[in-house]
Write a structure and sequence with these properties.
Blueprint: H1 18-21, H2 24-33, H3 45-49, H4 60-68, H5 79-82, H6 88-92, H7 99-112, H8 125-130, H9 133-143
Bound molecules: iron/sulfur cluster (SF4) (2 copies).
Length: about 140
């Protein structure tokens, strides 16, 4: 339903403050990833070359923007789990940002909170029988604490 004229959709409003921009979440992402988030100038070259972009709910440049702004909602994004760590974004980035490390850091923050991204019990028997064992081992390393 369209909002009345002059009203903002509150679910899309981002609250910014100095505390958030230098807060624990931003510090943690920087510490784990080893990346200076503010080096990113939002040129978009990472997203333009990302082979997984069409399946992502947030583009890679949007992920780093949310991390820069201390928006912890980024942890709910499918994108951080879909990133294939292919490093295409790093090779295209004019600012030398390794975005795959930022994605790694965001996944680690979720996993360290004890929330698995994958429950083997949810997988269908058919997939369990057909998928190669290596795929399971790799998935467990990536998606489970
Ligand atoms: S390519 Fe680099 S500078 Fe450009 S948006 Fe992506 S991370 Fe930021
Ligand atoms: S490392 Fe991840 S974000 Fe970067 S191009 Fe590859 S899939 Fe996309």
């Amino acid at each position: 339903m369209p909002l009345p004229e002059g009203k903002k959709d509150q679910s899309r409003v981002i609250s910014l403050s100095r505390q958030v921009l230098v807060g624990d979440f931003v510090k943690k992402v920087k510490e784990i990833s080893g990346q200076e988030l503010l080096d990113c100038n939002q040129c978009g070259k990472c997203s333009a070359g990302c082979p997984m972009a069409s399946a992502m709910d947030l583009l890679p440049n949007q992920v780093i923007r949310m991390a820069q702004l201390g928006q912890e909602e980024v942890l709910k994004s499918r994108t951080i789990w879909l990133c294939a760590s292919c490093l295409t974004c790093e090779s295209r980035c004019p600012r030398g940002v390794d975005l795959s490390r930022v994605m790694d850091a965001l996944r680690l923050i979720v996993l360290r909170s004890g929330t698995p991204a994958l429950d083997l019990a949810d997988l269908e028997q058919e997939h369990l029988l057909q998928a190669p064992q290596l795929a399971f081992i790799a998935s467990m390393r990536k998606y489970m604490p």
